[in-house]
Amino acid sequence: MIMPLPCERPCNKIAVFVREGVIVAGESERRAAAPQWFADLLGSRHWIRRTEPFPHVYARDVFAPEFYRRLADEFDRARREHADRFAKVADNYGASGIRLTELSNGPLAVFQSREWHDMIAGVAGVEATGDVEASLHSHPVDSPRGWPHNDLAPAWFAGAAPGPGEVRVPEPSVDTKTGPRGTDIVARETVRAVTLLFYLANEPWEPGGGGETALFSRGERGARPAKLVPPLNNSLVMFECTPRSWHAFAGANTAERNCVVMWLHRPKADVVRRWGGDRIVQW
């Protein structure tokens, strides 16, 4: 499914720029054109890049307060009106979720926009394909801890690669994990390139509240987290998917932990060339 382009509106020069230790948005030689409607949605333009235990980016106040409230309200509406469609995300994993493609267009559609895709790909320094997976995830109280994984996994999408300004999202004719559901279906195998978690619609978080995203320096089960990212509303953590981008849900949450989880993708050939095909984690 190709997501349509939003209507044309006046453009504003805006981007999020990477520097040592901090990412700053503003006018620069490295600026990128973005529509004014998109620029107006964003909050803080100061995003922090951290190098340990692997490169990742953390940001607070991602969206302007009014738009964040709309996102949180839409999450609550989805939980209320589509509770029966929140399905278990994976075996031995505590979260339930629903893909954004199963919801009607609304403020959450920003996560499937080309503008958001291109900004996140630019921050990550990844040449992404325009293919996007995005879901709402919710962990009930006292969910079990997850296991370290790196998300360097295949993802299949129908049809040809999106053109400039387009985004392709999952559709029923193709299983994102295994490929076409029929012999007459044309599909492409990509690999996850960027993971992003945006936290929203959570109770106020305090230390000891659990539910963080744990980042690890190694991938063994039972490894101790090197860093914990708290689920503060209107914040995000994102990172390039590599053989060492080990992360997991930390568990022990005293309240529901809610977020948008999304992935950008890259051609499989790029991953094979960079790390070897054996580093792709099969489902």
From TrEMBL:
Domain Prolyl 4-hydroxylase alpha subunit, residue spans: 55-265
Cofactor requirements of the protein: L-ascorbate
GO molecular function: dioxygenase activity; iron ion binding; L-ascorbic acid binding; oxidoreductase activity, acting on paired donors, with incorporation or reduction of molecular oxygen
Keywords: Dioxygenase, Oxidoreductase
One Pfam family in the UniProt entry: 2OG-FeII_Oxy_3
Domain of life, source organism: Bacteria
Record's protein name: Predicted proline hydroxylase
Organism: Nocardia cyriacigeorgica
Lineage: Bacteria, Bacillati, Actinomycetota, Actinomycetes, Mycobacteriales
